[in-house]
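Continuing the batch. This is chain 6 of the set; chains 1 through 5 are on the previous pages. Same settings as before, nothing changed between runs. Recording input and output for traceability.
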Amino acid sequence: MKSEVKKLDNNKVEINIEVAGDLVANKFEDVFKKIGQEAKVPGFRPGNAPRDILEKNFSSIAHEQVLKELIPETYDQIVKKEAIDVIDLPEISDVKLDRSTLAYKATVEVSPEIKLKNYRGLKLNYKKVEVTPDDLKRNLDSLKESRKIDVLDDAVAKGLGYPNLQELEEAIKRQMFLQKENQQRQDVENTIIDQLIKDLDFKVPQSLVERQLQELLRHAKVDLAMKGLAREKIEEQEAEMVKVLKPQAESQVRVYLVLSEVAKKENIALDDHMPRRVMEFLLKEAEWKSA
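Output for chain 6:
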């Protein structure tokens, strides 16, 4: 089996594949054997029809079945052999098949080459999370305004499900602390992402962008439907939603590909949990400084 890989523009490669000899001949033998066992040929019991009769009546079927089986098999072998990081199904063309030779061209989109900078020791600032008296006052004032009351007291706290005002304030402080903690974690992760992708120049595969765009669009439509917007109104907004969501999709794919590159270098499994594991690794390896 021979193969030649040629890089094209837009993250695509062209693979010219040629298969010759016993592999093709044996595949034809297997296919005709199956046909002979299953085909209904007048005058013969299943499995007893002569080969020349099968050739005469089922040649085109055998031809199609050989292609159907042999192209995926040989394509997968070549992709593994050449270590091609494919991200989409191939476009198959220029197919030629006879009883001893199969040749075809596979054009496929691949992951871009990403030249990572040093991703260990990224610089991060840590600020102690705390809820100040002013933070609490603003939250309590907002609570009063939302309920149009002048004073928060034990009676109001009991109405909200707390035994007294002090317990209500403690619950609000805990909630605010968690919100601030989550926000700081998000800010730190954003800082890591910014440092990782800064100055990286690579083309984002459009098939991945389109896939992510459709996922974002689906979620956006569900959100609008949950808010009671009619289906026809949602469809009317689709073009505008695509315009807004496409840059988000491209950014998300870019980040995912960079995290994937870190995962490959650090032998982190490329599964659904990969982004979280890579982020945990980068946080552990970072250089922290108290702000």
